[in-house]
Design a protein that fits this description.
heterodimer; A: Rossmann fold; about 10% strand; B: 2 domains; three-stranded parallel beta sheet; 9 helices; about 40% helix; cobalamin binding (chain A); metal-binding (chain A); Meth_synthase_dom (chain A); methionine synthase activity (chain A); cobalt (chain A)
Chain lengths: ~210, ~220
Amino acid sequence: MSEFAQLAQFVYKGAAPSVKELTQKMVDSGTSPMEIITNGLLAGMDIVSPKFKNGEMFVPEVMMSARALGEGMKILKPLISGEDVSVAKTIVIGTVSGDLHDIGKNLVVMILESGGFNVVDLGVDVSPAKFVAAVKENNAQVVGMSALLTTTMLNMKETIDLMKEEGLRDQVKIMIGGAPVSQSFADEIGADAYCADAMAAKDTAGKFLK
Amino acid sequence: MKGKVFACYTLADEIRKVLPPDLDLELLPYALHLTPDKLRKELQERIDADMEHDVLLFGYGLCSYGVVNLHSERHTLVIPRVHDCISLLMGAREIYDREFAKVPATFYVSKGWVDQGAEPYAEFQRHSEKYGQKNAQWIIDNQYCHYQRLVFIDTEVGDREHYENYGREVAQFIKVEFQRQVGSLRLLTKLVQGDWDKEFVVVPPGHMVMQRQFL
């Protein structure tokens, strides 16, 4: 098995110490950080995503995979900054008002960072006003919103509406995700994209920021 | 008119308490909402198989869209216009909304939630067996780090002191404030007594339950 495939397996298995060790070893032997991310860490998440969707993996296991991915990113992030990250490409992300769920959102943040994007994570229970302020402050081009409850997902619409009011809507692309939302919901509230999982979020952000 | 109630086991004690003798009751397994397609399939199969009743009542809410698209050619379907069973246990969607506005960071338990192990401490025990205690603690810490209180909804069923004390322990376990809130069977009573006003989604035969009816 190649080191990349081995690293992907470690991420999938949630073996954080092994990911840390192998990532360091690969860095030391001169492997390019972006290659380690793409062909190792993210390849591991590519195994996780479908298994989670079809019920072969559960939330705690995905959390442990994310933790393992994070260990690798801790080593790699400083090495890619400056080289691949453009500070002009900023994504503001958060879980909407009233909603505290952040496991999926945190994974999205990590995956976006691994894609070289500059991510401003606003955390949970983020009010429309906070989103707007963050877009202005960071001159963001993409906004990501997450909701896990049918009671809170309408706050995505509130946020989009406030961006319109503030004249920011044309400046940003808005992507949304979370268990209760869908493509049709995205269309209904006027979001630019629905992302079914973290990898889709990265691909979508990539298209928006090309 | 003959009627039957399909309800989640989470509400078993509460439903039995208000069920009139002329209504049939069938309880479905806990936590089907975690896979909403499965919940919908289980309910639709029961609707399709039923030839004995004219009205089917649901001890459910929107429940992660588990009731969306349910339909019947022969029955009227009646579902409380709530997002989930927390509103049903509190007695009204308004009460839930009020509590939610006060402290969104609340984990709710009731007798049914505790009985099925749908609370952080039971989860911790299950995770410990599967992933080891250290990982289990890490998982729970991450899942519940934003919560600020745990509320036991007391609907006056079962050994109330036991459940209240248990709730207190779970609150301690995730390091949040504990509160006891008086529940109410008002909405479930209205459901089984045919008092279907704006608080209910009433779907006549040949129609379909729509998501927007709940939002």
